[in-house]
UniProtKB/TrEMBL annotation:
Its EC number is 1.3.1.34. The lineage of its organism: Bacteria, Pseudomonadati, Pseudomonadota, Gammaproteobacteria, Vibrionales. This is NADPH-dependent 2,4-dienoyl-CoA reductase. It is an enzyme of class 1 (oxidoreductase). Residues 9-333 form the NADH:flavin oxidoreductase/NADH oxidase N-terminal domain. Transmembrane segments: none annotated.
Amino acid sequence: MDDKSYPHLLAPLDLGFTQLRNRVLMGSMHTGLEESRDGFKKLSAFYAARARGGVGLIVTGGFSPNFRGRLHPLSAEFSSARAARAHRTITDAVHAEGGKIALQLLHAGRYAMHPLAVSASAIRSPISKFTPREMSSRQIKKTIEAFAKSAELAREAGYDGVELMGSEGYLVNQFICKRSNHRYDEWGGSYENRIRLPIELVKAVRARVGKEFIIIFRISMLDLVEQGSTQQEVVQLAKELEKVGVTILNTGIGWHEARVPTIATQVPRAAFAWVTEKLKSEVNIPLVTCNRINTPQVAEDILSANQADMVSMARPFLADPDFVAKAEQNRADDINTCIGCNQACLDHVFVGKRASCLVNPQACYETELVLKPTASERSIAIIGAGPAGLACAVACAERGFSVDLFDKNDYVGGQFNLAMRIPGKEEFKETIRYFTRRLEQTGVVVKLGHEVQADELKSYDDVVVATGVKPRIPNIPGALDSDKVIDYQTLIRDNVQLGQKVAVIGAGGIGVDVSSLLTEPDHQDLDAWLKDWGIDKTIEHAGGLYPHEQYVSQRQVWLMQRKPGKVGRGPGRTTGWIHRKVLEKRGVELLGGVSYDKIDDKGLHITVEGQSRILDVDHIVMCAGQTSVEALSAKLQALKINTHVIGGADVAGEVDAKRVIRQAVELAAKL
């Protein structure tokens, strides 16, 4: 085994009373299993897989220390001996794999989605339905006691430590910042009073758990909201936390109500490591940095540059539980890389569904979606090497089937080859790289540039049709005859150069992506990205916000949809607002409730709210959905061949990689 490639990442971390086996912290993620029936059994398998994969220290999803602190009325709470006994399954499973695990204690404060919400002051957050009640001094002291009791119970449950959630705009953070703390008693007013809660919290927890127990404090180093903390205040708080017994300081970036992206795929890799670095020389306890760290090399670069002592990665461990083990074995190319899409993790959790992963649908389904070795020798043909075909081919081969994969193109990846050319979606090429590697390792026979015929497939036991989609051209008079019209696939694939005035028809995910591509600045490094979002690198301004002059595209773009209402959100629940804001900043005109009348030499004739308009455009890009490329299945069934249709060939609709990859792996598990 050669671990020389990542010496800093794989170095142990001595905490005095205990040692972590490397510098990797698996950041807290709510999975939805915390509240589900039989959830702890599934959660144990989930965390055990990550411990087996080499993570140095795991942090659980957030558990509330009392009822009022719950995010939802039915959210997970950790406040009783019964809860401690139930959690033993989790800690025992992690320890059996040589790992360490800490329980995150999180009080939602004004983010609570129930009428019993409490906070420092009675100020409703912009993303909440309920106005919280202002906590009395007695309630504050009882809440501190509840945290301390929960921490003691966590130790009894076998946890190696706790993480106290003091960032992202939750209760503790709400006390720290003027934005949400308008009190004039000993818990408000001066900064010393506003940080009294986190200090007293840590004191009480340390008194209960003793010296030999890890206390991580997640400190908001960059609030990204008005009336947030300055760098000087963050340093002051960090030093006080060190004095009262915090073991590790973990970085928190941005409140949930902040209007700046912090973890979406558009955010550059390691975009906030500089924030942690600012605190590095000010304290003597280990610092953890976080956000958009998704490869061993990115992590190694941060640690070797002394920007932090540990790196926190959360979603990368959904994508690949063996991330650390593969880094240790110098097999970084074998890692299934997180692409930062949020579509199966955060988007699920925010609507009360179980989290998983677009590129790894087995995440959080370790006990259910199992690829068992096949008992029989069977040959499988898979037609189409897009995301669905690739996932199915690899999963079938992992089970031990003999797999042949056909594609009429001379490359694999399908629609992902288009996605990776969209600014901010470059990560999609990592998924193609991973699947290409797995095809080699699992012995799949790949036949590219081969448009297969039904007669060629008679000898196979099963045939999987995954031929994908093609753009749908809507029935607009003049659309088929105009030189101005181009479909999105041709535009992206052939890198077609368009004029300065462009209309985009269809405002789903593809239309949003195309509009972003057409208005992207020529060059955007990290500093330019931070400036574009108004982030002050000195953090001298409150919350680290200092709006700069924004980039406006020289190209005029109209993004339109037939449906009335908001335009430009794209498909992602947690990322839609980012897409819309980017387009608005760049000057894209967003039009809903549009009727497309005709296309001629004058341009695109439309009707909006009863008013006729002619858009004098150079080009019109069609992003109005897709239709299936599927002509094989009927012929195969006529030949009495076992046929399965998956992916876009099954349901065209809006392109949904999450759906098609899960469908592919589920089929492979059933065959």
